[in-house]
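Sanity check. The docking grid for magnesium ion depends on where the pocket ends up, so I'm generating a full predicted complex first rather than guessing from homology. Inputs follow.
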Amino acid sequence: MPQEAHVYSYSAVLMGSPILLKLFQHNEHLAHQVFRLIKHYENLLTVNRSPSEVMNINYAAGQHPVVVNPAVYQLIKCAKAASMLPNSAFNLAIGPLVKRWKIGFQGSSVPPAEDITALLALTDPGQVILDDAQHSVFLTRPGMEIDLGAIAKGYIADRVRDFLHSQQVFQGLINLGGNVQTLGGASLASGAAWSVGLKKPFAGPDELIGVIEVNGKSVVTSGTYERWFEFEGKHYHHILDPRTGYPLDNALHSVTIISQDSIDGDIWTTLIYGMGVEQGCACLANKPGIEAIFVTKDRKVVLSSQQLFTFTLQDPSYQLSLGCL
Ligand code: FAD
Ligand code: MG
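Predicted complex below; grid placement will be based on this.
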């Protein structure tokens, strides 16, 4: 029988999230380099403190364009493209509403309806003006704010993968607080798949609905149960509907996307979350590289297709549907 390789785990807290790196070699220097790389991108992209390139853009809203680093520019361009899709639930200009609701941060509250209406007027992604030649970004109205919270962790997970490849590391796993990117399989000997738990909503951290197995793929989950607060018996979570200004409200507790690149997983969790099961399934039927696992509030687990992963249900109180029928 082939001998199993030992997995070495390294952890940190960055971007307000627990970060986990798994390697098949004990290499603290490499782990340190990975965490430094994540910190580098956090410093460019954060909107939780100054300075950062994104904060510089936000501060200049209504005043002047800001030239940014090419990587930041490309990420913003990609986020804008997702935001401009017809009826998109993804909006990179959602910042004023995120800041007002403060969901997941201290002081979260339900804003008065008139505040929501006023802030919605500042979230038009078409008013994020990009200049490819200059690599500049201009928010045309004062008060506009870019927020890359729904895409940046996916982008960074891919950069970590690329960095590890450049260091001749082709097996490992990076988990950026729910944004998982795997390199190769989970065993040097057998090439076995990595197991990624599908969390049970509002349960303990180790309580799983089931296990997703992947090899060299990204697994990203967005859900109603990670960052939320309750007010007068109503639950408010952090994925806002850019069409209403309120948290997205549909039959879903979570959407998990399995894909090659984690940036796609991050974008598509939000897009598909906004579509719901039926429309989401119809949309993914034409996207072979993007697969989804929907968890509904009435305890159904729906798999859009299963070319990129396998799923094993562990919690018998959930009902599994194979394929979007
Ligand atoms: P996703 O579902 O992928 O995205 C939800 C997040 O995207 C929301 O939290 C909001 O920021 C934004 N958003 C909401 N609605 C939409 C929408 N319709 N379209 C587009 N975006 C939307 N957290 C901390 O607590 N402290 C920190 O210091 C901190 N720093 C961070 C720095 C960086 C660079 C990044 C990327 C994140 C940081 N975070 C921090 C976490 C951040 O605030 C979000 O909670 C996190 O990115 C959400 O990721 P997710 O995968 O859980 O959610
Ligand atoms: Mg996301």
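Relevant for the grid: The first strand starts at residue 8 and ends at 14.
Also worth noting: The domain at 53-139 is CATH 1.10.3980.10 (T-fold).
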